[in-house]
Specification:
The longest helix is centred in the middle third of the chain and has 18 residues. The protein starts with a strand and ends with a helix. An eight-stranded parallel β-sheet has the order 1-2-3-4-5-6-7-8. It is 42% helix and 17% strand. Helix 4 crosses helix 5, helix 5 packs parallel to helix 6 and helix 9 crosses helix 10. The chain has a single domain, classed as TIM Barrel (Alpha-Beta Barrel), CATH 3.20.20. It is an alpha/beta fold. It is globular. It is built from ten helices and eight strands.
């Protein structure tokens, strides 16, 4: 199995990263894509610790919409910072997570959009996929991806919780759709119904650790080992064997991120 999105370079895993990695391997997780904030020097530094504990990990580096305000005076500087971080980390395979978040509005919306656009242009220049965060901003997110990606961008809608229209827009862009622990929540019936309509060869499984732990760990710190519960839920929705779904989502990960 592959955890296509986690934050194990975060402070939440400093004390027991080795144990977290061992539990992941014991659960059958072979690798993970670890998300790093380009503006977070401490998190960037911990990438080396992650690689020591789990050499098979790969990384995505970007400026999250919550932190776009750091670059308010010069949005292009966000892309420049990401480019600098990517060059320094050979194991980096994507730009992300990037996008728009109108739920919290921790950064002004116009700044979010400018920083998002700059990073998409960088992805196009470097030929890298993007990891997209969108919350209550679907129309603007899709519009910017279309405008700046020009149909040539690869990527994933991470921690997907949207409806069929967003899923179809993502698929039309050539993107993958990644599901997290929310898929296992009792009240996520609408999400499961949407996922049932999506082709398995475009699906990824993630934890978004330390957030959104699946049932039966809901409310606790999430970790890569628990991606098995997401894979099992995907398999059940599509009427497939869990092992087959694990192999499919891992193959999809390799297709997109070329680790």
């Amino acid at each position: 199995m592959t955890d296509s999105h986690c934050h194990i370079a975060g402070e939440e895993f400093i004390a027991d990263l080795d144990a977290v990695v061992e539990r992941a391997k014991a659960a059958g997780v072979s690798r993970a894509l670890v998300i790093l904030g380009a503006e977070d020097d401490a998190e960037i530094a911990r990438a080396a610790t992650v690689l020591t504990a789990w050499p098979q990990c790969r990384f995505a580096i970007g400026v999250h919409p919550h932190h776009a305000k750091v670059f308010e005076s010069n949005p292009q500087a966000a892309a420049e910072k990401v480019a600098e971080r990517l060059e320094a980390l050979p194991e980096a395979r994507a730009i992300g997570e990037i996008g728009l978040d109108y739920h919290y509005d921790f950064s002004p919306r116009d700044v979010q959009q400018q920083v998002f656009r700059a990073q998409i242009r960088l992805a196009g220049e470097l030929g890298l996929p993007v990891v997209i965060h969108t919350r209550e901003a679907d129309a603007d997110t899709v519009a910017i991806l279309r405008e700046e990606g020009k149909g040539a961008l690869r990527g994933v809608l991470h921690c997907f919780t949207g409806g069929l229209s967003l899923a179809r827009a993502g698929l039309d862009l050539g993107f993958h759709i990644s599901l997290a622990g929310i898929l296992t929540f009792p009240k996520a019936a609408d999400l499961r119904a949407t996922v049932k309509t999506l082709p398995p060869d475009r699906l990824l499984a993630e934890t978004d650790s330390p957030y959104l732990a699946p049932v039966p760990y809901r409310g606790k710190r999430n970790e890569p080992a628990y991606v098995a519960y997401v894979v099992a839920a995907l398999a059940d929705i599509h009427g497939l064997d869990a092992g087959d779904m694990a192999r499919q989502t891992s193959a999809n990960f390799h297709t997109l991120f070329r680790p």
